[in-house]
Structure formats: C-alpha cells, structure tokens
C-alpha cells in the first residue's frame, strides 16, 4: 500500500425518487453527513471537497450547513458524467498530495419529463434543436435502433434489461421504482421513441450521494475494509462519434468516449474486463446499457442477448450489472448518478450491499457513466 493510493473509506446516500418539500441541497447534506458517519469523521477532519449538481444549486454552498472551516471546495458540472468527474477531481487532489482526506458529493432535484437543453449551451445552432435531437429520448432511440440492426439483436433484449433492473430495484431500499415488471409488461408499455417504451427509459429524479476518500497511509485507520480506487479515467468524444448533442455521424462508428475511458481505466488499474465481479453501467435507457456492455469491454458486440438470456447479468450471475436497479429503477438525479454507481460497488465489495448482495465476495468492481455532450468516466475499484 502506497501513500499515493486512493481509498474510499465512507459512503452515504439519500434515497432516490420524488421527495416533496426536500431540496436538492437537503439531499446532498443528508448524504454527506451519512458518509462522514460511515467514515467516523467530522466535517472539520475533511481537508478538501468536490461537489456536483446540474440544476439544484452550488454544492460548495453546503459549507454554510456543515461548518465554515475555510475548506477548499471545488464545484463541477459535466452532465450525467458529473459524479465521475467530481470523483476524478478528488482523486487527483489526493495523489498530488494536496489533501489527505477529501469528501465528494453530488445531488439534484429534477422536474418531471424528459431532459431538455438549449443547443447554444453546447455550441450548437437552433437548427439542431429543430431536428428534434436535443430531446434525449429521440437521440437514444435512434442510436439503439441503429445498434440493434447492426448486430442483429432483437427488441426483447431491451425488455430483458429493464426486467432485471426493476427486479433489482424492488429489493433495494434506496431505489425509486420498487415494483418488479415482466419483460412482456415492458414491451407492452407505451412507446416513447421506437424501439424504446416507457419502461425502457429512466426518469429524471431526485437524490444525493457522498463519498469520503483518503490516501493510502490513512485509509486503514479510518475504515475496516477500505475500497481502493484503482483507477478513474475521463474521456471526451472523438470526431465522427455519434454522441448525445453531437451534430455528426460517421458511416463507420469510431471510438466512443466510453470505449476510451474504459480502456484507460482497465489499463491504469492493471486488470482486464474479464476480471470484473460486479459492474455499474450507464442505463439512461435499456439500449444504452446494451451498447455500454460491449463498449466497455465486458462482452463482444452482439453477445448481449445471450448473456441476458443466460442470467449472467443477474446479481447472482457471472457478470452482475446494475445490482441496485441502475438508472432505470433509481431514476437519474444528474449530479448524484455517477456517485450512486460507486456507492453501490463499494457496498458490494465490502459485503454489505443494501439490496441484492453479489455472492462469493467480488474483489473487483467497475463503474461507467456517460453524459452530454459525449463524455464518459469509468472507475475500477478493488478490495
């Protein structure tokens, strides 16, 4: 163990869902206080902090609630990848020796309905909005339709992803959607954008997650079973890659940011995708999970349906994916979503998951988050 190694020594979460009368800032505070308790620390013990929120305020404002200690507090905002970028920023503080213990927090409280954005905020003209592609459900449906056609995958695979997600969510106390659905119920639901039905999409939601990170020379003093952040890598899109809010599409798809971020994370951690014992993948919709299974190297393109049919991606299968229900069952409060993934994998590796516990004590976990305008963050976590 090196002092430059980074470990997660505490984790806290506010349940995802709809919480009338509770602000996004309230949920961030709740999660951060829970993470401090988990690590056995006080706010005054924290050297620095990083926070992310898309629409619910400035995370650094939380110092007025937790304590005016003069702490360095960095705020980030990177779409659905906000949590991953916040984690990467915190890890860099530790490896650079700028801090010994760092808190990371993400939270959001979104209105009902699909995410909508102003194209000007992404450097695009209003013509792009008139194509309908600023409505994310249309983008993800188009990408999924193309992918299913290209690799000969049936639409039933999309329903299988959702069925498993809702089954996992039903068992997890922090998930929003707690009612299991059959694959047929998912297929029979109202179509939003072909081929995706209502229950194949996640919903904008509310929630908060926080993590406490420490350098290697402090970690085992703070936690009985700290989890090593073996790698965290962030990548943006390349030219021609078909990504959300990107006005181009190459006839032959090139590397996506998910491919690049995952490959970099596995390389930095010195492990192979086949070594992963539990994984969290961005599932804005069922199609996105299918695509990300292959883009991150967890399977080959076109193998997803076979894995789903065999039960391999269940919590007790060979490759457990989204064991807490993912975005489909949890919803997506943007600032918290990427940190939720890490929170779940940490709990799984520690053997104290709140929902379905992966059997046989997995030792290597992986997380992948993806956001606009074509940005991915991936982590590798080890016991």
TrEMBL record:
InterPro entries: Thiolase, Thiolase-like, Thiolase_C_2, Thiolase_N. Pfam families: Thiolase_C_1, Thiolase_N. Gene3D superfamilies: 3.40.47.10. Residues 6-173 form the Thiolase N-terminal domain. Residues 252-380 form the Thiolase C-terminal domain. This is Thiolase family protein.
